[in-house]
Write a structure and sequence with these properties.
The structure is a homodimer.
Chain A (H helix, E strand, L loop, with lengths): L1 H11 L4 H8 L3 H8 L7 H13 L6 H8 L4 E6 L5 H17 L2 E6 L4 H11 L6 E4 L9 H8 L4 E4 L9 E5 L1 H14 L5 E6 L8 H12 L9 E4 L5 H11 L3 E4 L5 H10 L9 E5 L13 E4 L2 H17 L9 E4 L2 E3 L9
Parallel strand pairs in A: 1-2, 1-3, 3-4, 4-5, 5-11, 6-7, 6-8, 8-9, 9-10
Antiparallel strand pairs in A: 10-12
Helix pairs in contact in A: 2-3, 6-13, 9-10
The structure holds a DNA duplex (16 and 16 nucleotides).
Chain lengths: ~350, ~350
DNA sequence: TTGAAAGCGCTAACAG
DNA sequence: CTGTTAGCGCTTTCAA
């Protein structure tokens, strides 16, 4: 009778803790404890159970254990975009530490949409994940959903695109400083009319890089106005970018995100704008191709992998000691300017 | 008394179906059915319950419903690599259809490791996901784990890097043809000694692109030997690539994956090999930067987003009618060569 | 060192 | 149309 039960289980491929218990003539709780390496089970019994489990590829039902233990051994990662070298590398960093901890990583894409970010965070509230790592969507300019999330005390760490006004654990780069130094670098190389090219600018969202840009200009008594800002909303804005470049005779440009390198290089080629002779170019970007572009591109490359690692480590710290309501800290990772041909001094 | 129970629930932020039931003085099953929009509940009751649920941001516990219904409303996606434009776009395609279907997407990275792929698939067997979308790791050259997976009857669709020897639902590009045509293109442009640059070659893994390459050479009575194959295992092989290029005087090269474009361009620059005059270059690759490289790069760009969509649609078809054990089909998506400067005729 | 039993939140018979 | 109830597979007291 027991035999036939087991056969049925294997046929249905539904091997559970009970299958093992029956097969080995022990109780389910013994099996459970053995599988969780509890100290109250004898080595002998453990070995027997583990051997059986391994043989039949037992793997616990995550929904059952999640329901019972209120722990999912899963963290949720919300990013605005894949297809972006920076976020890709961050994910790798996160993965590498999650794996060591035996956690699963659930990746969600907000696609820069506030609406979607909202939905995702809402679902997290029901306990699908033990902790959250999030970088905000560009569209996000209101933060009630974030506050609601934090109220639920789900361990959360923000990285890169963070809600400045909210007190929370955050991991960022020294964006203000980088924006400032990037601009200073262009100025040092002789630029006097510098554009700042950004992607889908939102007035409401604080932009440290841009602040740094503005400060550098002002410090050097260079005028800053809306003219210096080129806001690239989508591929249609290629013409607007083209016009801006031909109208204003910029001699330097800071590209704030890697997606905009291609259109900028394309337009310069088309308009026969010589980089760096006529226009010096510097970009925040992470792809290795920067080193083989013509001219090679001066970049600010973030420690993306490290940011993933740091964020994840910080999150696990919170998950592991939830009562530690210490003052939330903001970790700042440094990144550096890598000078290449596109900002070489020519005049 | 009821009041205080509710207060407690809201304090603990644990709003469940029972909270709602008590608050509204109905039974849990009524609530459950109402939330699932069952026809057996009156509109009036539904409205009442939905209103309450919305007000208090109720969101069902995925572990409870997963356990009970044996459905997780989640699909698992296994890819070998992020930071690769192709897979990034595939993910977007998958996401877009999963979202429409109300499914979650669990993304796993195998990092090209067989070991990791094995672990991931093993965990899927316990029912964490309702279906699986997978592209194999480069290291994978044995397929028992795949067969075991398929035996469990978990709906699975393979894409791009597929197990050729196994009968299953697959979505691919016309790789053999593309390898063939890519090579033919180089030959037409005048190349007579063509290299094939690939990433971590495994003899055991069938490689349709390479087969196409070989066929094109043989058809043209050009000799094919191991010399034509440059196997790039890791960044250290940069020197090997350099040597191969300077020793063998290739006049054409097929790059089989986008990661290798940067090293190739870098080395050509360093060795002052003129593209396309001395060496014509063509790459399988998906990044937009191909259009601004110098010279612009002839590419074979896959319909990556569409591949994600197609795979997902195909998977949901299987999930929705599991008993449909029809003959598994292989969908072939076409992609085209986009000719640019790097393969222009010069001699 | 082991086992019995309760119950996590939800769904789905089945009964009313 | 609504309610009662029995589990899903697992963990975790508590008792033996």
């Amino acid at each position: 009778m027991i035999k036939s039960f087991l056969e049925e289980q294997h046929l249905k491929n539904t091997i559970t803790i009970q299958t093992i218990a029956k097969a080995l003539q022990v109780s389910v709780s013994t099996v459970s404890k053995a599988l969780n390496d509890s100290h109250e089970i004898s080595q002998e019994t453990k070995d027997k159970i583990l051997a059986y489990a391994r043989e039949y590829d037992y793997s616990p039902n995550p929904y059952a254990s999640g329901l019972r233990s209120k722990k999912s051994k899963t963290i949720g990662v919300v990013i605005p975009e894949v297809g972006n070298s920076f976020f890709a590398a961050v994910i790798k960093g996160i993965e590498s530490v999650a794996r060591k901890k035996g956690y699963h990583v659930l990746i969600y894409l907000s696609n820069e949409s506030f609406e979607k970010e909202l939905m995702i965070l809402n679902e997290f509230q029901a306990g699908r994940v033990d902790g959250i790592l999030i970088s905000l969507a560009l569209e996000t300019d209101t933060f009630e959903h974030i506050e609601k999330l934090l109220e639920k005390n789900i361990p959360t760490v923000f990285f890169d695109r963070i809600p400045h006004a909210i007190e929370a654990t955050k991991v960022v780069t020294n964006d203000f400083e980088l924006g400032y130094r990037a601009t200073k670098h262009l100025i040092q190389q002789g630029c006097r009319k510098i554009a700042y090219l950004l992607y889908r600018h939102h007035q409401a969202m604080s932009n440290q890089r841009l602040e740094g840009f503005i400060k550098a200009l002002e410090e050097t008594a260079l005028p800053f106005s809306e003219e210096n800002l080129i806001d690239y909303q989508n591929a249609n804005d290629k013409n607007r970018l083209k016009n801006a470049l031909s109208l204003h005779a910029f001699d330097g440009i800071v590209i704030s995100t890697e997606e905009l390198v291609t259109p900028l290089y394309a337009i310069c080629k088309q308009l026969k704008i010589n980089i760096p002779a006529q226009l010096k170019v510097l970009s925040f970007c992470d792809f290795p191709l920067a080193t083989v572009l013509t001219p090679t591109l001066t970049t600010i490359k973030h420690p993306a992998f490290q940011m993933g690692e740091t964020s994840a480590i910080s999150l696990f710290k919170k998950i592991e000691k939830p009562r530690q309501n210490t003052h939330p800290e903001t970790l700042v990772l440094a990144s550096e300017i890598i000078e290449r041909e596109s900002t070489e001094r020519t005049f």
